[in-house]
Structure formats: structure tokens, C-alpha cells
Amino acid sequence: MKNRKKFRFLAWLMAASMAAAFPSDPAVTAFAAGSANGLELRQQIEAVQAVSEPLQEAYDALTLVDMDDVRGNLPLFKEGANGVSIDWTSSNPAVISDAADGLYDGGIVTRPAAGKAAEKVTLKAKLTLNQESVEKVFQVTVTPQEANPDRDYSAGYL
């Protein structure tokens, strides 16, 4: 029983350390497994960053669609639910912009040329409300342009 308590404490300590190492992630899960005195021990601990309800609602509401097949501009809004302000950061602004450009708040997509590999881009949204903030990360894939797209739209109607 003493080893089981030590094991649980170590699993909890690992989860707390991970939460401290990744403070922008509201939920961190740590898994631990081991054996002591012929017993196999498994423990799962989740460390959750407490945020206010309005900020959590904005975090949950913030989504991007078709993240594995981006072919057009993305709506990187600067304001979310409950008046939460959102600051975006792109790992590759040449492919997905993170700065305002006239009409858009960011999210202008420049697709790779036909025949090139798809581009993987990490978008980080920092949501802030009343000096409290949390970060949400999106992994997106921008697909390359099509080779020789059919540009004669009247061809099928004649």
C-alpha cells in the first residue's frame, strides 16, 4: 500500500510538472505505469488550469473547420464569445498570415504551388479577458494548388 501511495504521488507530481511546463494548455493529462512487489500500477492524472467561465466558453467556442485540408482564407477573428480578445500567431506567416490586412484580421492563406508538398502550420490563439488568458493551438494543413485547373468554365455548356 505504501508503494501505491508513492506511485500516485509521483503520477500527480508528473501531471503538475507538465501543467507548469505548458501553462497555456488548460488541460494536461499524465499517464504513469509501473510495478512494485508484483503489482502492476497504472495511474492517470489530469491537471486542469482553472479559468473563468466566460473565458472557458470562448475557448470552447473557438474552432476552425477543415484544418487538415485548408484551401482558402481562415477566419482569424480578433474578438470571440463573451467579448474575449484573441491574438493569433502563425508558425509560418508566409503561408497563413497572422496580421491584419485591410479587410481581414489575418488568416490570409497562400497555398503552395502545384506539385509542392502540403504545408503544415501551427496557429496559436491567445484568448484574453480581464487580464486572464489561455492559449488554444490549431494544427492546420494547407494543401497545394491544383495542377492545370480547368479555367474554361463554358466548355461543359457548349
SSE blueprint:
Blueprint: H1 2-21, E1 27-36, E2 39-48, H2 53-61, E3 85-90, E4 119-129, E5 132-142
Antiparallel strand pairs: 1-2, 3-4, 4-5
Helix content: 10-25%
Distance between the termini: 82 Å
Strand content: 25-35%
By DSSP, the count of extended strands is 5
Number of helices: 2
- In terms of structural class, how would the helical and strand content be classed? alpha+beta
- Count of the domains: 2
Low-pLDDT runs = none
**Largest β-sheet summary:** 3 strands, antiparallel
Question: What order do the strands of the largest sheet run in, or round the barrel if closed?
Answer: 3-4-5
Radius of gyration: 22 Å
Mean pLDDT: 79
What is the H/E order?
Answer: HEEHEEE
Quick structural summary:
The protein is 18% helix and 30% strand. The chain has 158 residues and is α+β, with helices and mostly antiparallel strands. A 3-stranded antiparallel β-sheet has the order 3-4-5. A two-stranded antiparallel sheet has the order 1-2.
